[in-house]
Specification:
Helix content is 0%, strand content 49%. The protein is an all-beta fold and 122 residues long. A hairpin with a 4-residue loop joins β7 (64-69) and β8. It is globular. The protein starts with a strand and ends with a strand.
Length: 122
């Protein structure tokens, strides 16, 4: 399985970005994680592919949205009201799990994309 993440870039605080992750095959779930410099990788959001069920990290507080296009095997992470502390490399990952409860853990994913940089400035 190959994953191609895109859509990162530079944006001012308060702005928005839309990240995309194209998968080479269908999947059970897609998750998004991020890693800021000097910090551990952390869970952002996940979506169950068949019915669109979602799970979000608490820190998002409604600022981000996740979706998928089943026909294109592509997932999306909409980042809104971006803050400087959202600066990180964002990674998409896919796995076979249909359990939303497990989707916040990196061990639930079998394949990872290369990451896309999001930089938020004041």
């Amino acid at each position: 399985v190959q994953l191609q993440a895109s859509g990162g870039g530079w944006v001012q605080a308060g702005g928005s970005l839309r990240l995309s992750c194209a998968a080479s095959t269908r999947t059970g779930s897609m998750g998004w994680f991020r890693q800021a410099p000097g910090k551990e990788r952390e869970f952002v959001a996940a979506i169950r592919w068949n019915d669109g069920g979602t799970r979000f990290a608490d820190f998002m507080k409604g600022r981000f949205a996740i979706s998928r296009d089943k026909a294109k095997n592509t997932g999306y992470l909409q980042l809104n009201s971006l803050r400087i502390e959202d600066t990180a490399v964002y990674y998409c990952a896919v796995g076979r799990s249909y359990n939303l409860g497990s989707m916040s853990y990196d061990w639930a994913y079998d394949y990872w994309g290369q990451g896309t940089q999001v930089t938020v400035s004041s």
